[in-house]
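Q: Sequence in, structure out?
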Amino acid sequence: MNTDHATKTAVLVMSDPHGGDEALGRMFNALAAAYDFDQAGDEVRVQFQGAGTRWPELLESPEHPAYEVYQAVRHTIAGVSCGCSDLFGGGDGARAAGLELIKDNPLPGTSGVASLRTLAANGYSILAF
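A: Exactly. Output:
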């Protein structure tokens, strides 16, 4: 594993699990990208944001078609955006999965959301699916 050119990448899953095959494809490709970066020895973190905060509850099921890839990158999952999970109803599933509720951007009218600026300031490239 060559880490001379290691990168820092944040993979954001924003697709709505109720969005059918297209949404499933986005989530699957987000996790595949996280796996690819992780296997190369790069620093990677996965965050569920927006309607994507609904995914963790579904992905915890061994019957889900993306369960194995989810488990393969589970250690890279930083958490879910707290305010987004409040809005889209993903908080209970995230807590049941043991995921952190990220709220480092104190957006007015919310419990706080995940800060993209903090990721950028810390040198992360941001991929949104």
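Residues 14 and 49 are 5 Å apart (CA to CA).
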